[in-house]
Each structure stands twice: as structure tokens, then as C-alpha cells.
């Protein structure tokens, strides 16, 4: 969504498509501003991200941030590296310069750790903050430059949607929506929600609030248990094959919701999903 939409009654339609190349989980950018205790003999030029879906840590996800460095003569120094491994619990940064390591159970853990790297800014995209990183069910990313602020963010960390499951056995499509940006908590009116899917066994359509400021730092491997603590706006049984309207309201009768919200569509045999969420800015 864009900042400054101009017309508070404009209807915004956001589209979610299930697929390995769709709906990244993480956004990143990097600042070259001066940092505390930095050496005048070391110049940092840029940061990169590399994602290894089955890294050295027991075939679990690894996120590697590398900071490129040069001395006062322009000769390259060893990269400053920060490695986050998927694990059963969060472990804070440790190590000796220039190499540091940490562990993360959830997407929230990884975001907190990334934001502790000097100059880094990270936030969640299309996954809940409780999404588990304790697996190898992601897509590799070759070393990629992280945009320098105030440029756009690097959108990364895609899931292998055929293998990444919730509630033990359910494939899932996620989309985060907020106003004016996906991470923001602006109020919206929910005008419409429809979806067409292939595979709906045990399926659910859920729309719920997922604000990082309200995250409890508790994670449950059981999706239903984790959802019990959320502000739920839509909780419907999923319908297979045909395009189904789960919410269809006019502007005057639309429910007011507060973002950011996650749309989650899941089923044990879900293989395809296209969903559209229509909202307007709440002007009350």
C-alpha cells in the first residue's frame, strides 16, 4: 500500500497468491550513517543478505548478513558477518569481531536480532511474527545487496510452501496488510474478502491482528493454540474450487479493523490459492 493515498474512501485491494516465489516474509534495508565506537580506519560500504535454507545448523535455516569493509587505503578487509540460525529457542548475539552468531525460533526473534545490527532495519512482511524459523523449509537466496536507506527494502525470505506447514500438517498462504504500510497500525474498514483455492480439507480462512508491539514472545507449535490469543476478525471454513466471498460489505456497513493484520488460508491439501482483501481507510 502507498503512503498518502489521497482519498480516504478509496478501496484498496491486496492480492495473495500461494507460491514459492510469492509473499516474502522479511524486509530489510541498511544505513551508512556513523555508528558508535566505529574506527576511523575502517570504512563500511554496504551490507548483503544470503539465505541458506538448510545451512550448517542441523539442516535448519541460516540468515547471513555481511558488512563490506575497507581500510583507509581502500584495501578490502574481512567482512563483518552476522549469522542467525533457525533453532528451538532464541539465543542472543555472541562471538568475536568481526564474526557474530545468534539463533532464532520465530520470525519475531530474527527481526529483533537483525535490528540489533548497527545500521540495519528489519520488519515482517507476509508471515505472522510467530512463524517458526526452526526448519529448512525456505528458499535459498544468493548473496544480495541490501538497499541503502532511504531506498526501498530488500524483500526476502520466501517459504517452500509445499513443505512449510502449520498445525502439524496444514499448508498455508499468508499476507500482511496495514495502513499506510504493511507494518502500520492504521484503522481500516473491511469491505471484501474472497478466495479461490485447490484443496480445502480441514481448511480455514482467518484474518487477525498481528502487531509486533503486542507480541507475547511465546510460541506454540499448535497453530490453533497460537491463534486463541489473537484479535480475530474473520474465522471461516474454507471452500474448495469455486470463488467464495467470505466478506462482502458496502462502505457504510463494513467492519472497522485495526492493522496490521494477517490473512491466513490453510488446509492439509492446499496446493493453490488466490485471495483478495479489500479495505478502505477508516475516517472515523
Please provide a written account of the structure.
- The protein is mainly beta.
- The protein folds into two domains: 1-23 and 161-284, Jelly Rolls (Sandwich), CATH 2.60.120; 24-158, no CATH class.
- Helix content is 5%, strand content 44%.
- The protein contains two helices and 19 strands.
- The protein has a six-stranded mixed beta sheet with strand order 6-7-5-4-3-9, with helices on one face.
- The radius of gyration is 20 Å and the shape is globular.
- Mean pLDDT is 89; it is low at 218-222.
What is the secondary structure topology, with strand pairs?
Blueprint: E1 11-17, E2 26-30, E3 42-52, E4 62-71, E5 80-86, E6 91-96, E7 99-104, H1 107-115, E8 120-124, E9 141-145, E10 154-156, E11 165-166, E12 170-177, E13 187-198, E14 204-209, H2 223-227, E15 232-237, E16 244-248, E17 255-258, E18 261-267, E19 272-281
Parallel strand pairs: 5-7
Antiparallel strand pairs: 1-19, 2-8, 2-10, 3-4, 3-9, 4-5, 6-7, 11-12, 12-18, 13-16, 13-17, 13-19, 14-15, 14-18
Q: Low-confidence runs (pLDDT<50, min 5 residues)?
A: 218-222
Query: What is the CATH fold-level name of the largest domain?
Result: Jelly Rolls
The CATH class name of the largest domain reads Mainly Beta
For the secondary structure, the number of strands is 19
Tally the structural domains.
2
H/E element string? EEEEEEEHEEEEEEEHEEEEE
Strand order of the largest sheet: 6-7-5-4-3-9
Question: Could you say which overall geometry the principal axes of the C-alpha atoms support?
Answer: globular
Indicate the proportion of strand residues. 35-45%
| Termini gap | 20 Å
**Can you count the helices?**
2
Structural class assignment: mainly beta
| Rg estimate, integer Å | 20 Å
Which CATH architecture of the largest domain would you pick? Answer: Sandwich
Largest sheet: 6 strands, mixed
Helix content: under 10%
Mean pLDDT: 89
Amino acid at each position: 500500500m502507498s503512503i498518502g493515498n489521497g482519498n480516504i474512501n478509496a478501496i484498496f485491494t491486496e492480492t495473495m497468491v500461494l507460491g514459492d516465489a510469492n509473499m516474502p516474509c522479511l524486509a530489510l534495508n541498511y544505513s551508512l550513517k556513523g555508528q558508535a565506537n566505529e574506527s576511523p580506519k575502517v570504512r563500511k560500504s554496504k551490507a548483503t543478505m544470503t539465505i541458506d535454507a538448510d545451512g550448517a545448523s542441523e539442516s535448519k535455516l541460516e540468515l547471513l548478513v555481511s558488512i563490506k569493509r575497507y581500510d583507509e587505503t581502500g584495501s578490502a578487509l574481512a567482512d563483518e558477518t552476522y549469522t542467525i540460525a533457525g533453532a528451538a529457542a532464541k539465543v542472543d548475539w555472541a562471538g568475536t569481531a568481526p564474526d557474530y552468531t545468534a539463533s532464532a525460533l520465530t520470525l519475531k526473534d530474527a527481526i529483533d536480532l537483525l535490528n540489533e545490527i548497527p545500521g540495519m532495519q528489519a520488519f515482517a512482511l507476509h508471515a505472522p511474527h510467530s512463524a517458526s524459523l526452526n526448519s529448512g523449509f525456505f528458499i535459498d537466496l544468493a548473496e544480495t545487496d541490501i538497499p541503502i536507506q532511504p531506498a526501498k527494502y530488500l524483500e526476502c525470505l520466501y517459504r517452500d510452501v509445499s513443505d512449510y506447514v502449520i498445525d502439524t500438517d496444514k499448508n498455508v498462504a499468508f499476507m500482511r496488510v496495514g495502513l499506510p504500510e504493511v507494518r502500520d497500525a492504521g484503522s481500516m474498514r473491511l469491505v471484501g474478502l474472497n478466495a479461490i483455492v485447490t484443496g480445502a480439507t480441514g481448511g480455514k480462512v482467518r484474518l487477525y491482528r498481528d502487531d509486533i508491539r503486542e507480541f507475547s514472545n511465546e510460541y506454540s507449535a499448535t497453530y490453533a493454540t497460537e491463534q486463541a490469543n489473537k484479535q480475530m476478525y474473520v474465522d471461516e471454513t474454507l471452500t474448495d474450487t469455486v470463488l467464495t466471498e467470505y466478506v462482502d460489505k458496502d462502505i457504510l456497513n463494513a467492519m472497522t479493523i485495526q492493522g496490521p493484520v494477517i490473512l491466513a488460508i490453510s488446509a492439509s491439501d492446499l496446493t493453490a490459492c488466490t485471495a483478495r482483501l479489500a479495505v478502505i481507510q477508516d475516517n472515523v
